[in-house]
Amino acid sequence: MEEDRRGTVSTLAFVLMPDHLHWLVQLGDNSEIQKVVGRVKSLIARRLDGAIWQPGFYDHALRKDEDIATVARYIVANPLRAGLVSRLGDYPHWDAIWM
Fold first, then answer.
1. Are 85 and 91 contacting, i.e. CB atoms less than 8 angstroms apart?
2. What pLDDT shows up at residue 7?
3. Beta partners for residue 14, in sequence order
4. Any idea which architecture 2-96 has in CATH?
5. Distance CA 76, CA 80 (A)
6. What sections of 1-99 are H helices per DSSP?
């Protein structure tokens, strides 16, 4: 992702669902989640030639007792829970480096 190249985040896992995105990131130094998400939404909207995003977003900072690998697995399993596929490997719009 562009934000990874910029160094503002390190993407740990993501899944692009039909109507939303789940994205597990580690913020870079001095990165602000609002600005990062705003740039990503803007870039994708420009590439798709139109506004596709709802205003705002929902974020959740992981607590020290939360296991990153468990959260990453939960994120990428969203297509299974939504009934879009019967095997995660059949869903093309996800990736994770933290599994």
1. yes
2. 87
3. 23, 95
4. 2-Layer Sandwich (3.30)
5. 9
6. 2-6, 33-47, 68-76, 78-81
Instruction: Return the C-alpha torsion angle 71, 32, 52, 62, nearest 10.
Output: 10
Q: What is the DSSP letter of 58?
A: -
CA–CA dist 4, 50 (Å, integer): 23
* Nearest in space to 98 (alpha carbons), one of 68, 77, 75, 76: 68
Q: How confident is the model at residue 43 (pLDDT cuts 50, 70, 90)?
A: confident
Residue 45 tokens read as 């909207």
Indicate the helix (H) or strand (E) that contains 27.
strand 21-27
pLDDT digits (tens, 9 = 90+) for 21-37: 999 999 988 889 999 99
Written as six digits, the tokens of 22 are 């789940």
pLDDT digits (tens, 9 = 90+) for 44-59: 888 887 777 788 899 9
